[in-house]
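Hey, resending since the last one bounced:
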Amino acid sequence: MSTVVMLALMWNTARPPAEMYKPHPSIGFWGYVFDPSYDIDAPPQGQPRYYMPQPGDVFLATDKRVFWSVGYKLVGSGHPHHSGTVFQRSNGEMAILEAGPHDTRWINTFEAYYHLSSYQDQPGGRVWIRQRKSPLTPLQSARLTEFAEMQDGKHFAGPRMFWQLTHIRTKNPLLLNFLGKPHGPDKLRYYCCELGLEALVYAGVIDYETTRPLATWPRELFFDQSRNNYVNRHPPLEECWYPPARWLKCLPEEPASETELKPPPPPEFHLPPPPPPEFHLPAK
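The structure tokens again:
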């Protein structure tokens, strides 16, 4: 119990940084993605491609902060620590729905490029995208938008997530055949992975009967595997999403060639020319 109290006291009650609410400065660019891979420690691999977000994509992120590393280890999980869902706002802008962004206690929607960049800019920050294999139907996308905009401004379910550190938890594998099903859009609080799966169920994209939002961590969305036997038998993203693709907000600079790394040679030193000989008129 003391561990739960300690982590709860560390929770950030502030709002996310104001710059994360800014509109996209140049519509049409959302960074780059690389080849999909389940290797969480691999650097970006393959040929970079422009990332074109589409409703239903799932973003995953992690960093080196001790708070989340310790917390997820205590509940039997690990990296990545954050997840969110891409959707299209009513005004047409591509945005991300997330619960508890940057250790806050709120549910918010953010413009996609700024939000992904904010996680990459964290110390040790890494971001992945699980892209849809096929686009959502117009009805599915509209339902996803409806769900996301209903949740904006609600509270993150921090206290309920901290209970996962105790024996009073919703991830008991013996109960998941009957409990832990989606609850819909009317709950007052969600945590990040729960919120994303609830949104996809509401949109009709994943199965209501087999999805267990309360029993799924971001790591299980990354690997399509779980220590929990029930979730391991019913990975919610395996069928219709590509494996995670590493995301970067800009391409790394090319390393300088060996010639470019050499210092320029010192300037050559030349003696000044001798003065011209004196001119004397011939004697008369």
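The chain has nine helices and ten strands.

Sorry for the duplicate.
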